[in-house]
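Structure in, sequence out. Go:
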């Protein structure tokens, strides 16, 4: 750690407006994938390891605020300012279904079993769509105290998490009863909420702090004040010993989970950072910014395991079987006739 190397990220171009949401698929037989939402109305799918563009989902008529992939990486979903949430075939890019709403859709999430889609937005209402019967009316839960900013599933789809745009706290809903069973209190609105890969923690960012909550007993585990106003935070999924945060100062801060000490700070974006997420294998993380780019950063060599080597540019290069295999499979993906002009 004596020689602090400058991190050189993979820069992914293609979006013409700010990038406002990022989501990694779990590891699939074809590798893992990264989907991005942008105010340019065109969600994009990428190889999660290399950042290579795979395709663009075309059909929204307004800013896309939220995006996600199902557990198998076979379907994508997006929520938009055009008052719709759409389901897409992630292999072909075809629109499979469009769910009409009465106002802006800010958040969407596939259930763990992939059969349900949860949405929330300005209407102050959670909707649960049955993807096996997409033409059936959704189940509506309308007790949200404010406009919904984030949603997530936990406890094997028995519980729903939501936060509001203008009210602090995270609400946990019992899916069966549709009632709020617990509220995790924060002073400011929660702009980012993530359930950890092992289901142990809920990571929240509320502007001035990043908090970690016990996802089963709902107690506050850790709370760290941030050096700037942060919009998004993510916990390293494998060891759980690091977390990242990004926000107004345009930097991506890496912290020690146990002490809250800042380990490193990555500079490169030219606008506020709206979203940060760790890849499912924990070797890299992505950031999306007001500047319209996505940057994929390797974990520093100091945190790398013995299967990694340090590349010439100081980033951790992976010596990992299967990367070429993934690349070969991805060549068969055809999503959009017209790719982005670069990257």
């Amino acid at each position: 750690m004596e020689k602090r190397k400058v991190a050189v990220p993979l820069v992914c171009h293609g979006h013409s407006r700010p990038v406002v949401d990022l989501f990694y698929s779990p590891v699939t037989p074809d590798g893992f994938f990264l989907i991005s939402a942008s105010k340019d109305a065109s969600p994009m799918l990428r190889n999660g390891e290399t950042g290579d563009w795979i395709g663009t989902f075309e059909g929204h008529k307004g800013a896309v605020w939220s995006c996600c992939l199902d557990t198998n990486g076979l379907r994508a979903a997006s929520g938009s300012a055009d008052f719709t949430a759409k389901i897409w075939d992630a292999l072909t890019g075809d629109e499979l279904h469009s769910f009409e709403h009465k106002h802006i859709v800010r958040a969407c999430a596939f259930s763990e079993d992939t059969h349900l889609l949860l949405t929330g937005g300005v209407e102050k209402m959670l909707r649960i769509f049955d993807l096996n019967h997409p033409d059936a009316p959704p189940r509506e839960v309308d007790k949200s105290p404010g406009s919904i900013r984030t949603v997530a599933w936990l406890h094997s789809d028995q519980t729903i998490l939501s936060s509001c745009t203008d009210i602090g706290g995270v609400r946990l809903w019992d899916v069966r009863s549709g009632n709020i069973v617990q509220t995790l209190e924060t002073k400011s609105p929660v702009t980012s909420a993530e359930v950890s890969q092992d289901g142990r923690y809920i990571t929240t960012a509320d502007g001035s702090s990043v908090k970690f909550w016990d996802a089963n007993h709902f107690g506050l585990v850790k709370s760290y004040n941030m050096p700037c106003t942060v919009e998004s935070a993510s916990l390293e999924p494998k060891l759980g010993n690091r977390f990242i945060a990004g926000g107004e100062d345009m930097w991506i801060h890496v912290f020690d989970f146990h002490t809250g000490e800042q380990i490193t700070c990555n500079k490169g974006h030219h606008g506020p950072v709206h979203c940060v997420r760790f890849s499912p294998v924990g070797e890299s993380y992505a950031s999306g910014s007001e500047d319209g780019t996505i940057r994929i950063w390797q974990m520093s060599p100091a945190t790398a395991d013995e299967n990694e080597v340090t590349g010439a540019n100081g980033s951790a290069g992976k010596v990992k079987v299967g990367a070429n295999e993934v690349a070969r499979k991805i060549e068969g993906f055809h999503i959009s006739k017209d790719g982005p002009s670069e990257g």
